[in-house]
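Progress note, sequence design subtask.
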């Protein structure tokens, strides 16, 4: 939260592609916090070879002189940036008595989301769905109390919170499945061709994002329905630079949060990690 009290970040993203493989560079500059460049390679075919899908690093530069201060572990920054980003929205938008939390996607981020959400909702029951059932079973075997579900529609209809971190390019979550009072947390889509929910879901919900600059014109979750006219720019109510708008108006409304995970959040997280390391 405190990072958003600083002057608004200047942000720039670049993408390079080779088929399904991606090089993503995200850069941010926040006056008072410094500069960061996060580079990520995303190779979807890697898991079949027994190596991680995502690799990368974060270069952190000083605010006063632009000197390189640290190379911060990519996976550490991504894990806590992503989880913290979504958890802040859930804290503000989800019903505080949520008891049934569905994680969609059993990758590295899914495990981090379980750790984050269980800290905020310690009495909740957690379910996991994954397109590949063995991966869901492996995650459940590592996390006590986590239960695998096979039918995504049934699980979504029963959940109080759905947190979705997949590589899907077509909507997995259908708006017709949603129930009053739900909070939907969308993490996976990061390219212009990627989506996790359909147009019906967006039209049934009040929609929020972490940053207008990194989501509206860049990520398919919003870019595609905006382009088709399924939603309008006014459908997206606020980002984290206007936290006062992040309020649930009733117990029955549905809320959707798009976690775009911009470089400004990587900068805030990396700076926090370096500060804590220095104090230690």
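Output:
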């Amino acid at each position: 939260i405190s990072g958003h009290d600083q002057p608004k970040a200047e942000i720039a993203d670049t993408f390079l592609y080779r088929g399904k493989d991606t090089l993503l560079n995200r850069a941010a500059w926040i006056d008072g916090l410094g500069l960061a460049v996060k580079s990520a390679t995303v190779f979807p075919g890697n898991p079949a070879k027994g190596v991680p899908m995502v690799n990368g690093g974060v270069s952190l530069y000083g605010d006063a002189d632009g000197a390189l201060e640290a190379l911060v572990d990519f996976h550490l920054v991504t894990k806590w940036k992503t989880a913290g980003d979504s958890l802040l929205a859930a804290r503000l938008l989800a019903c505080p008595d949520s008891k049934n939390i569905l994680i969609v996607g059993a990758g590295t981020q899914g495990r981090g989301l379980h750790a984050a959400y269980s800290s905020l909702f310690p009495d909740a029951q957690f379910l996991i769905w994954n397109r590949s059932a063995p991966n869901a079973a492996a995650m459940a075997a590592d996390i006590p109390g986590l239960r695998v579900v096979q039918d995504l529609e049934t699980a979504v209809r029963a959940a109080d919170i759905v947190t979705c971190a997949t590589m899907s390019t077509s909507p997995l979550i259908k708006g017709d499945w949603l129930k009053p009072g739900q909070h939907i947390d969308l993490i996976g889509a990061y390219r212009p061709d990627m989506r996790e929910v359909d147009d019906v879901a967006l039209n049934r919900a009040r929609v929020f994002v972490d940053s207008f600059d990194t989501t509206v014109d860049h990520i398919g979750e919003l870019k595609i329905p905006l382009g088709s006219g399924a939603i309008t720019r006014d459908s997206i109510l606020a980002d984290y630079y206007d936290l006062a708008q992040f309020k649930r108006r009733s117990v029955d409304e549905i809320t959707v949060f798009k976690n775009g995970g911009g470089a400004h959040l990587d900068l805030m997280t990396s700076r926090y990690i370096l500060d804590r390391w220095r104090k230690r």
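The radius of gyration is 18 Å. Work on this subtask will continue into the next period as scheduled.
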